[in-house]
Design goal:
Layout lengths: L22 H4 L20 H7 L25 H8 L18 H14 L3 E5 L2 H12 L5 E5 L4 H15 L2 E5 L4 H7 L5 E7 L11 H10 L3 E5 L16 E5 L13 E5 L1 H7 L6 H5 L5 H10 L3 H21 L4 E2 L9 H7 L9 E5 L3 H13 L4 E3 L8 E5 L10 H7 L5 E5 L6 H16 L5
Parallel strand pairs: 2-3, 2-4, 4-5, 5-6, 10-11
Antiparallel strand pairs: 1-7, 6-7, 8-9, 9-12, 11-12
Helix pairs in contact: 2-4, 4-11, 5-6, 14-16
Keywords: Pyridoxal phosphate
Cofactor: pyridoxal 5'-phosphate
Family: Belongs to the trans-sulfuration enzymes family.
Amino acid sequence: MADTLNQNTNIVVSNKKRSSGSDECDHHDDSFFVSKKQSKSLVWEDPAAALANARHEFGEHGGVNMSIEASATFTVMEPETMRRMFAGELGPDRDFFIYSRHFNPTVLNLGRLMAALEGTEAAYCTASGMSAISSVMLQLCSSGGHVVASQTLYGGTHALLTHFLPRACNITTSFVDVRDLEMVKEAIVEGRTNVLYFESVSNPTLTVANIPELSRIAHEKGVTVVVDNTFAPMVLSPVRLGADVVVHSISKYISGAADIIAGAVCGPASLVNSMMDLHQGSLMLLGPTMNPKVAFELAERLPHLGLRMKEHCKRALEYASRMTKLGLKVIYPGLENHPDYALIKSMANKDYGYGGILCVDMETEERANRLMNVLQNFTQFGFMAVSLGYYETLMSCSGSSTSSELNNEEKELAGISPGLVRMSIGYNGSLEQKWSQLDKALSKMQDKMPF
């Protein structure tokens, strides 16, 4: 891979192979990664507009949709070309591809769209959200490395940091309450800490991270800020707020149909290039490759992500408000009684709301299970299932499901009640139709269970 970054934008990959002897091919750069010139600032840019401004990839025969490049390997016209590709002299920026674990044209295009969405120079799409997270951590940290992370994280990420990385890689993590900025500052050891890691909106407690302040603290000590933005695509833009790297489980809101497992790393071109290095790159060598057919499907869903997010968020706020009036203990960042309401309001992109997830604390697991049972099996409000971002409402008791990797003490520190029900609010049916189902379930339980 080249060491330099060309900041030109909208580099078009031709459908025709160029000869490796061409003068044009000898001009090597990394432009295929670049979405557009970036500068970190708090100037607002509508993520939907950024997606619309990204290059549109047409099909091989002029189709309005791009073609799917399903090949695992790619041919060359001249024997010398292959040597030059492996030497890093020729690459995807000039339409030279080697092998789809390295680069694939269809997956590369989805990466450009993800970079536009998050306002980063580059993005690389992976086979899962956990593979994106793992690859970033392994690229930024070496043996003996140190991470400071939020104590409230998705269970799989928590297990990675708590168990796997210390055992397999000698990388340790200090967990902190990211709302306590002094605690974060004290946990970062200048010269030793490599990464500050947190979720923009925490899973499942819906704590909102102060991204500008956390980024400032980390950067003062030379630490890279990695933010999982799975819960808040379109709602928050972490890099525009000061973060360095954004990771996603694309399986959730971006996919929107609960039928695809995928992830993404969005960040500086220098980082993504290093992750694709033939000798030292975590993505290149661990091989969490996205299938180009999956990349094609996801690229077709991104244009309506903004419309979907607005409806998810609109309904979540409406239901959270109504449930609060009924006396339930509701956790939702868009409610004025949420401790982070002013913070998320100051950071959120205009018109996208405050997220599509709300939590109801039923205090005990038994009560939580009764509520979910009635909601699914008696009133058809939603489904008992993990994950989020589906067009139907999905419900789970976090402590015994997606956060089950945490022990009881860790759950208590993270603020995860045994009866915490996480609801990913869908948009299927009308708002009033679904509210009627929810209200009916609550009425059914009210006689036996005080709220």
